[in-house]
Amino acid sequence: MKCSGAMSRVLNTMIWRIRRMMTPAILRDELENVLGSSVRSIWGDRIPDDFRAVVSGSKNLEFGDISCQAAMRLAGILKDNPRSIAGRIAETLIDGIEWISSISIDGPGFINFRLSDEYLASTAFNLAALGLQSFLPDKGAGREVLVEFVSSNPTGPLTVGHCRQAVLGETISSLLCASGWKVSREYYFNDTGRQMNLLGESLCARYLSAEDGEAVIPEDGYHGSYIIEWASDLRAERGAGLTWKNDRDTFIRFAEEKAMKMILSDLSLLGIEFDRFFAESELIPEAVTNAIDKLSSVTVDGRSLVYKDESGKLWLRFTALGRPKDRVIIRDNGMYTYRMPDIAYHLDKFSRNYDLMVDIFGADHLDTSRDVTAALECLLGRESVSDRLKVIIHQFVTLVKDGRKVKMSTRSGEFVTLRELIHDVGSSDVTKYLFLTRRAEAHMDFDLDLARMQSSENPVYYVQYAHARIAGILRAAGEAGINTPLEFSSDISSLLNGEYERELMRLLESVPVRVAAAADEMEPHRLTEVLADLATGFHRFYQHVRVVDTDSRDVSEARLVLCRACRRCISDLLGILGVDAPDRM
RNA sequence: GCGCCCGUAGCUCAGCUGGAUAGAGCAGCGGACUUCUAAUCCGCAGGCCACAGGUUCGAAUCCUGUCGGGCGUACCA
Fold first, then answer.
1. CA(A54)–C1'(B5) in Å?
2. Model ipTM over 0.85
């Protein structure tokens, strides 16, 4: 109900006591329900069962704050013009809806709602007091999610490509956490097989070259200069006299340990910690054998999924699972190809009973990932897999340096490391933020020179500066003895009736909804959009409106609420991104 | 050849799962500091949303095709 004056105050107090706090998400739900039942009450059976009167934020201020396009959607079904449909719907809402101050019909048939000043002000107040978290729907509800990311094999330092994935994975994890999920971060790595052999051999070659001067690195081996350092460390620890023939395992394990250390320290630059590092060797041979047995016992079109060819290789008949090619899973030398342990690893994850599993992979893993998913669906059931496994594939980063694209390969040793990148850009916060301004499936040109050049005019600093400015205002307010109100009253909303205040409150009100959508879609880049909007909104407000003013303390106090709400949203969001929110700059 | 992703301002990218006049940052031009931080704000300029069809009240968004770029198409991970 729409109320005003004293009545509203009384009602308001009661509502706080007996109802849940009104949040932007609930408001939109209720609005959709009211509209939906209105539509049904007028047209009844003519409306399809799955019809929903969807509402969304209005782009333009003159179109209210929230708008509904139901009338246009219904025009085709009802064979009537949208404006008259909208009119009939609006008539049923004539008594008013709580928190909505006015309704209008505009353009081709939009039903536009204006949020009441009191609702906007109270939302800002609650954001300031409780923080963003309290406004996000508890989607996870304490359920457990496993996020697998980076999963780079221990053959060298992390590169620019891994950096994008690390930032993406970590932010998605934080975002899920903010939506009520209990998050575990897991790193899967391959510590057996050909790659590790090559790495060990490459180390051995560098180790021996100290004696005979020339390093003979195997074809396809690792040429990175970091291995030279490892070789001299190995020499310092174990002396001379090791040979590939006798000490193969020593070389491999030593290299692995060194590589893992590098990776851990690279990750720490981004502030990332994993809950578990899962080694492929933990799966060999039992879990993998087990998985093969399970797949063997499946028959499609009267034949087993697994077959052996005349040379003794074992194949998995992926074509029977709707995939384009059959694949070798055990080679003639008895070694597994990478798909098989991947399948076993995912079976292991599923057996650990997570409610949700998120895989984050680079574009080069797409095909493998599809194969793994197909195998899982075959063993565990389609629904069980599609409900619980979400695969996010991100595209590659092309690094541009001196106006040219840099080709990268860990093998050849030609790559830019995550460490170098952060060093070149000048800050891990800037690096993270820049990666997060693009959506995962978009290719990305990362221009190093530009990133460096822009670093003083950077989107991150723009946002951080807004935060620092607010902190400055709060300091000044403290010195002037002006305090933020501890309780909400409708007096506050009547003091915030200027155009800049309203613009800012409207923006603040939309933040929880936008963040929740970003979490639902697991699209962290939307958070940087929200942050940029918040910073712009605040800077604009700041430029036009004086907050601390000892001549009108009540207005100052009301405006402080908005400052605090902004600050809280910015720092909470930066927190999710793992970026610092400084009080001074 | 086939599969997946992407073509939006000079550059790097958004565009809220089909809506109202397509947005931001950087680069360019012009304004605003006696003030809670000018790392800011305000304004101007810049677009056949790759191209061609289709679907409908309505398309940057969905479908088909063409052209261009990336990745994959390994018994490397």
1. 30
2. yes
Close Cβ partners of A103 (under 8 Å, ≥ 6 residues apart): A90, A93, A97, A111, A112, A113, A114
Identify the residues numbered 89 to 148 in chain A whose C-beta atom is closer than 7 Å to any atom of strand B.
106-108, 110, 112
Q: How far is the C-alpha of A206 from the C-alpha of A229, rounded, in Å?
A: 9
A584: nt with nearest C1' to CA: B37
Residue with tokens 């074509």: A319
Contact A233, A289 (CB under 8 A): no
Protein-to-nucleotide distance from the CA of A584 to the C1' of B32, whole angstroms? 24
Q: How far is the CA of A561 from the C1' of B74 (A)?
A: 61
In this complex, which residue's CA is closest to the C1' atom of nucleotide B77? A338
Task: Please count the CA atoms within 13 angstroms of the CA of A415 that sit on its side-chain side.
Answer: 23
User: CA gyration radius for chain A?
Assistant: 29
Determine contact, residues A148/A274, Cβ cutoff 8 Å. no
- Number of neighbours of residue A231 by Cβ within 10 angstroms: 23
Is A522 within 8 Å of A390 (Cβ atoms)?
Answer: yes
Residue spans of the domains in chain A: they are 5-115, 285-335, 457-577
Average pLDDT score over residue span A185-198: 92
- How many CA atoms lie within 13 Å of A539's alpha carbon, on the beta-carbon side? 13
The length of chain A is 585
A404 touches strand B (CB under 7 A): no
The distance (Å) linking the CA of A570 with the C1' of B30 is: 32
Please give the CATH superfamily to which domain A5-115 belongs. Answer: Arginyl tRNA synthetase N-terminal domain (3.30.1360.70)
How far is A406 from A485, CA to CA, in rounded Å? Answer: 55
Q: How far is residue A343's CA from residue A368's CA, in Å, rounded to a whole number?
A: 10
CA distance A317 to A304: 8
- C-alpha distances (whole Å) from A159 to each of A125, A152, A163, A396 are 44, 10, 6, 11
Strand B: list positions under 7 Å from protein Cβ: 2-7, 11-17, 19-21, 24-27, 35-42, 56-58, 69-77
| pLDDT tens-digit readout, A253-279 | 999 999 999 999 999 999 999 999 999
* Res. A2: pLDDT tops 60: no
Q: What is the pLDDT of residues A82-133, one digit of tens each?
A: 899 999 999 988 777 889 999 999 988 999 999 999 999 999 999 999 999 9
Class of domain A457-577: mainly alpha
3-state secondary structure of A382: helix
Q: In what order do the strands lie in the sheet with A356-362?
A: A276-279, A182-189, A144-148, A356-362, A389-394
First to last CA, chain A: 46
Contact indicator for A171, A527 with CB cutoff of 8 Å: yes
Dihedral sign from CA coordinates of A448, A452, A454, A457? positive
What does the alpha-carbon distance between residue A529 and residue A524 come to, in Å, rounded to a whole number?
9
> b/e for A87-97, b at 16 or more Cβ within 10 A?
ebbbeebeeeb
